[in-house]
Structures are given as structure tokens and as C-alpha cells.
Write a sequence for this structure.
């Protein structure tokens, strides 16, 4: 079965996303003379914890000649995070930007540990207390379930030593102000996909919530299609010189359409973490508006009904109880899941609005 370029790109991106599920690692110090095998082993061993830092991820897809995916698309996310110890929800402030297809969207989410906030197009909104508490409880329960497991690349079954080709120690390099050792190499795509399948299977066992949107497995046909379509993949890995903790990973590749189809795409994923284990502050934004106002704004953009009925009560900043509040919170959760499942399909997203006024 021939897979068109657009779903093929999604499969490739799913594989890349699995590589960014964890960024632990750590071991002894390294130098430009350390063997590349030792560097990789220490970097992905998962023996050290990353408790704080600043994340940065940029994904750029430049597609040409393919229906539905033409032109460059860039997604960026990043910001500080700070562990609160144990399985508690960390403090974080993650900003998102999307540019492409004639659109430019800026958004973000943050948590002070006690309150949650959403930023959309430059305006801050406070999440209602009941909804935030439910989110925090769900996160902490998932962490407790996976507490006995160390969610590193190695525990997920991803071992770069299996699929890196011509890997070499490329010497000293900087990531921000951090001293690192740079590793370069190519990729044996079939072996990488075998590792990805291992990771996809293990993420569910470990309760990794970021894997919800990933497929449960890549089929043999999908693996073959990806292997044939991915061209010239390269990887750069930057590991901490003093602690062997992963600081940056850059993956670049080209995807060509299957035989009988047209189009191609250049894909670049750049993931980094700086200020590792340095204290980060996440202040509460001033002047945050009730979440209901965000729903109302979305309604004015064509997602009608978002600022009325139960949506209004769901967005209040109070934590009042009662059947009305409980019903609205459930409706908001259903709406949020519906919009997430809709992906970039505006027609499906508009239909989600009905969930906010359901009895």
C-alpha cells in the first residue's frame, strides 16, 4: 500500500517525537579523547536526573510539491521548568509558536504548582481551580505509577549505539554557556524504527503521558515505507563535558514521496536543554483573565458557543462546588480532548463546541 507524503511525514515525525520523550542520562566526565561508544553509553544511561532547566525544541518542515503540506512550517516550544520533588507537578512555563500555511499562532501554558495559566496570542488566562486540580492529580497519579521506572532513552528501548552509523567524537562544542562534546553520525533507519517500536510499546507500560498521540506500533508496511522514503538522515548529539547529560540533539533528514506520488520535504528537529539543574523561577502572570474569556474569544473566531452556558462557569476562577460546576468541568474536559483529537481539522474542531453546552 502506498502512503502519500502527508501521512508519511506524520509517521516520520512520530518517530522523531519518540526520541524527545526523555533527556536524562549522565555519567562521568568526558573529553575530546573519549571513545564515541563510551560517550553514547554515558549520555543515555539515565543514571542522573534532570530536575530543572530550560527546554527548547524547534521543528521545521519544508515541503514542496505535495498536496496539503506545501511550504515551510515551523513549530517552536520552550521555557523553564523546576521540579518540586517526588511525583509532584513541576513548575513550568512553556511557550508555543506556530508559523506556516498562512498562519501565525502564539500560545503557552504555565504552572506555579498551585495554579495553572494559559496564554493565547499574548493574553494570559487563569485555569479554574477544579480543572487545574484535576490536571495536577492526574499528572501525579501517572508519576506514581511509573515511579519504579526510570524513563530514559535506554529504558524506552532507544539505544543510539544500535542505529548510529559512522559515529565519531567531533570534539568540544558549546550549548549556551555549557561545555559539551559533540557527536556526529548518520542513521540506519530500519534499526532506528525497530528501536522506535520498542519505545512505543514501553511508553504505555511506563505511563508516559506524552505518548498518547503516538501510534501503538509502526506496521511492517509503514516501516518499509519510511525506510525507503527517508534520505540522508544525520544526527548531532551534544553531551555535557562534566556530567554526560544530554544537552542537545539535532536530527535532519529529507523525505521523498513514494513511487507514483509527488513531493518532498526537508525535516529538521532541534531539541536542547540548558541551565541543567539550575534553579528556575515561574512567576504567576499579572492581570490574568478568567478562562471563560478565552473560550469567548475562540468563539468569535468561529468556534461558536464557547463563551456561553457551561463554558462560562467552567472558566470561572473560583472553586465552588455543585452539580453545575461539576457538569461544566466535565464538559470542558470533553471539549479539550475533542479539540486535541481534531488536530488541525477546523471543521471537526468547530463541532466540539457542542460539548460545552451538553447537559
Amino acid at each position: 500500500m502506498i502512503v502519500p507524503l502527508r501521512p508519511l511525514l506524520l509517521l516520520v515525525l512520530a518517530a522523531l517525537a519518540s526520541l524527545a520523550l526523555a533527556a536524562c542520562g549522565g555519567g562521568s566526565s568526558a573529553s575530546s579523547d573519549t571513545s564515541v561508544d563510551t560517550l553514547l553509553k554515558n549520555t543515555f544511561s539515565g543514571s542522573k536526573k534532570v530536575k530543572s532547566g530550560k527546554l527548547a525544541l524547534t521543528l521545521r518542515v519544508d515541503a514542496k510539491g505535495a498536496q496539503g503540506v506545501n511550504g515551510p512550517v515551523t513549530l517552536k516550544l520552550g521555557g523553564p521548568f523546576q521540579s518540586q520533588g517526588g511525583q509532584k507537578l513541576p513548575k513550568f512555563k512553556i511557550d508555543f509558536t506556530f508559523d506556516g500555511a498562512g498562519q501565525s499562532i502564539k500560545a503557552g501554558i504555565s504552572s506555579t504548582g498551585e495554579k495553572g495559566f494559559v496564554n493565547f496570542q499574548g493574553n494570559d488566562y487563569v485555569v479554574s481551580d477544579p480543572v487545574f486540580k484535576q490536571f495536577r492529580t492526574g499528572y501525579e497519579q501517572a508519576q506514581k505509577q511509573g515511579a519504579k521506572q526510570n524513563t530514559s532513552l535506554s529504558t524506552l528501548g532507544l539505544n543510539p549505539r544500535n542505529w548510529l552509523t559512522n559515529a565519531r567524537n567531533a570534539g568540544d562544542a558549546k550549548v549556551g554557556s555549557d561545555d559539551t562534546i559533540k557527536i556526529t553520525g548518520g542513521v540506519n533507519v530500519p534499526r532506528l524504527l525497530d528501536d522506535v517500536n520498542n519505545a512505543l510499546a514501553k511508553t504505555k507500560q511506563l505511563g508516559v503521558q506524552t505518548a498518547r498521540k503516538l501510534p501503538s506500533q509502526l506496521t511492517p508496511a509503514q516501516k518499509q515505507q519510511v525506510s525507503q522514503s527517508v534520505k540522508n538522515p544525520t544526527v548531532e548529539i551534544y553531551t555535557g563535558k562534566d556530567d554526560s547529560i544530554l544537552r542537545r540533539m539535532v536530527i535532519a533528514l529529507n523525505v521523498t514521496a513514494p513511487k507514483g506520488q509527488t513531493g518532498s520535504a526537508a525535516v529538521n528537529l532541534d531539541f536542547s536543554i540548558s541551565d541543567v539543574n539550575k534553579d528556575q523561577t515561574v512567576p504567576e502572570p499579572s492581570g490574568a483573565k478568567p478562562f471563560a474569556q478565552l473560550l469567548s474569544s475562540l468563539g468569535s473566531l468561529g468556534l461558536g458557543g464557547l463563551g456561553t452556558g457551561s463554558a462560562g462557569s467552567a472558566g470561572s476562577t473560583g472553586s465552588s462546588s455543585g452539580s453545575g460546576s461539576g457538569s461544566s468541568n466535565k464538559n470542558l474536559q470533553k471539549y479539550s480532548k475533542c479539540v486535541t483529537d481534531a488536530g488541525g481539522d477546523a471543521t471537526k474542531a468547530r463541532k466540539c463546541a457542542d460539548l460545552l453546552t451538553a447537559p
Notes: The chain is about 30% helix and 30% strand.
